[in-house]
Amino acid sequence: MTPPLSPEEVLLTKFLRFCAVLYGVSGVGFAVLHPVMFDLVRPITDLLGLTATPAPSERFWLTLSLSMMLMLVVCCTLGARDIRRNQDMCIPIIFSKFCSTLCGVLFFVAAAPYGMYLTIATTDLPLGIVTLILWRRARASVPA
Q1: Domain count, the chain
Q2: Which domain holds residue 37?
Q3: What pLDDT is attached to residue 144?
Q4: Mean pLDDT, residues 40-52 taken together
Q5: Would 2 be classed as within a structural domain?
Q6: pLDDT tens digits along 102-133
Q7: DSSP string for residues in the chain
Q8: Is residue 48 part of a domain?
Q9: Global pTM value
Q10: Would residue 90 count as lying in a domain?
């Protein structure tokens, strides 16, 4: 008989369900709000004295970001569906969040002090850290 899920596994399952919705809504927001997305962040970047990020006119990077958001939704959904068997679906989520954080910070420092680069880091770093912590706790809680 399979033992019941630990509280840590239940918490990770709930977090992954939340993130699946968050990433899905964000992806739809990227697609729908693409023409004005950079304008929505501009008041914050102006307040911080950062350079306004020029809005891209092409859809190449939008296509890749939508693909990434869909991948995150799928990983979260599969992980939450059966957390004990699929908790390693958290690994691509964690790597994705840390990669985008690192790239955002590097681009901010090395390329241009655009506010959107910091927006990536300030949203993705906490998501990556929380996912990593909950995943590690859930892994440690699995009965032998």
Answers
A1: 1
A2: 7-141
A3: 66
A4: 88
A5: no
A6: 999 999 999 999 988 998 999 999 999 999 99
A7: -PPPPPHHHHHHHHHHHHHHHHHHHHHHHHHHHTTTHHHHHHHHHHHTTPBPPPPPSSSHHHHHHHHHHHHHHHHHHHHHHTHHHHGGGHHHHHHHHHHHHHHHHHHHHHT--BHHHHHHHHHHHHHHHHHHHHHHHHHHHS--
A8: yes
A9: 0.93
A10: yes
